Amino acid sequence: MRHSNAQQFLIAPAFDTSSTQDLALRVDEAYSSLEVNVLLLEPNDQLREALAVQLAAEGYQVICAATAHRVFELLAGQSFDLFIGKEETPPRSHELILELKKRWPHLPFILLVERAHLHVAQQALRHGADDLFILSQPLEELGEVVERNLSQEALTRRRTKRYRTMLQASGEAVLDAMLTALALRDVETEEHSLRVTAYTIEIAERMAVSQAEMYHIERGALLHDIGKIGIPDQILLKPTKLTSEERRKMQAHSIIGYNMCARIESLRGAARIVLHHHEAWDGSGYPHGLRGEAIPIGSRIFAIADALDAMTSNRPYRRACSLPNALEEIERCSGSQFDPNIVKVALSVPLGRWEQLRHVAST
């Protein structure tokens, strides 16, 4: 069977990639298990929101309640590391403290108290409250009060999560450095990434893709070739057409790139696009031979943008074709190589817009 100009870049080898398919899920589960969960009780909406924002900024997972009844419902259904809340105003019988300590004796209890009611604070501590936070204190001091009341196990989780968050940030910086290194090896790869990202975003916007999904699509498009950092120069920079064996090794870049991105929390969504950006609608792509809507939407959009740029760019072994001819070829491959619905969107973009995007991304 003759392969199209677009499809010559998307021919599938047989890779054993079963170990990569559930990596992102395992990373998600491991990261969420580090959350420190705080239950907050505050009847005043404005104050409750302010306290929750402060705690979230400190890295805590915060669940809010406006009534004691709701507190008991939440505690019956899930596990918390600490409770922070206000008794009835003015506090009298300390029923909330007594009931919480009776049913959840190991749950740390921080009492929110107005300065005007400090006279009952000592009584509250005798009834089982572990600590106090005076609401006239700066909210920035709340995190310190919470941390000193956490169990050793919760504190360990918190510190581990903080450390991993720092690693995530540094991981993105490392990938940026790798992209720069890759650009120094192969200038065309950098220019191609910028153009294909612009094309991908154009199509995604016309499909009204959500902002959350757009975040991952944009990063996936930009990083799609990051795995080429692991491809030898004699293959990556070869001025003539690749042999079958060389093409098989080159195609490993999608798996290499996935493994690089999937370990960074903020890039997990992008990692799936990096892994599957050479899949084909009819299942003839790589690395997993996914078919139809089993291919992530971002990868399906990207595949068209990638082919469009590949066909309209010069290669040492062939000349670029015109933009109309490239779009004609994409239309011909609709339903085989490409998602037919996304092809329709791509064909609806005026030629002048494609030319504008190419010019801007190349300058």
TrEMBL record:
Response regulatory domain: from which residue to which, for each copy?
A: 37-150
* UniProt-listed InterPro entries: CheY-like_superfamily, Cyclic_di-GMP/3'3'-cGAMP_PDE, HD/PDEase_dom, HD_GYP_dom, HDIG_dom, Sig_transdc_resp-reg_receiver
Q: PROSITE patterns, alphabetically?
A: HD_GYP, RESPONSE_REGULATORY
GO terms under biological process: phosphorelay signal transduction system
Domain (HD-GYP): residue spans on this chain: 167-362
So which domain of life are we looking at?
A: Bacteria
Protein name as it appears in the record:
Uncharacterized domain HDIG
Show the taxonomic lineage. Answer: Bacteria, Bacillati, Armatimonadota, Chthonomonadia, Chthonomonadales
